[in-house]
Design goal:
By secondary structure, this protein is of the alpha+beta class. It contains three helices and three strands, in the order αααβββ. The protein is about 45% helix and about 15% strand.
Amino acid sequence: MALDQNFTKELESLLNRYGVDAAVGTPDFILAELIVENLQALGDAVAKRERWYGRQVGIGVAVDESLPPKTAKMVGADGKTVEIIDLDNAVYEGDD
């Protein structure tokens, strides 16, 4: 996972704007670097896990013009499994 410098700078600004740096007594640029490094480490760990299980790394949403509006086709990590989702009635993990 590659995050560009603009993301890090915007994250620094966001942390500063909300006073997170002051609240934890650490400069915003150090916090931003820490967050970006952790996001990159998480991405690397997920990719390693998927390879360890012999699965294709990544999951995506395919655009299919033949589907009705507000419908998505999810392609599984195996590249073959497909699930059609009605975005108006979808239930997401964590929804009450």
